[in-house]
Amino acid sequence: SSGYIQAKRVPSPLDPFERTLIRYMIRYGFQDLFSYTNEETGETEIWKVTPYIISDLQNDEIEFQHPLYKRVITEINSVFEQEGEHLTRYFLAHPDAEISSLAVDMVSEKYQLSKIHTKFQTIESEETRLPDLIPRALFELKDAITSQNIKRIREEIKQAAGGKDSNRTA
After folding, report:
1. Do the beta carbons of residue 117 and residue 128 sit within 8 Å?
2. pTM, two decimal places
3. Helical spans, DSSP H, in the chain
4. Distance CA 144, CA 24 (A)
5. Residues 44-55: pLDDT tens digits?
6. Radius of gyration, CA atoms only, the chain
């Protein structure tokens, strides 16, 4: 079960950011996100949620660290074209129990949120806010990766300096 895998793996500070992006892809992957005009053809083209997220990550050469999320994004990438609007259903019915239960969690979160919001009709749904939320989620993941890299470099410098002259600097 996933509890067992979690026990072996030390959680990474990147996990929640990766999870958010996976959630957007499983829940809204086929939805239109942005339209733009292709300079060469003059045609209006549409970025859907999944290709937008995947191409943004690839442009910055970012690979997910979490083993489960990594498996899911690889699969989303390969089935997106054929599954399209059935992406959510595809993952809910996934033969790998770990993947299907992750999808169930991500889809049921939606209903909890919408129940709370029904009292306050003015609150925009997550769905209508995706053009803000998705670029922000990508930025937050990159920001977290940068922080992690800085922290790692500081540790390495400390260790390199450590060894011999730690007594002298005291």
Report:
1. no
2. 0.80
3. 2-8, 15-28, 49-59, 67-83, 87-92, 97-117, 130-169
4. 18
5. 999 999 999 999
6. 20
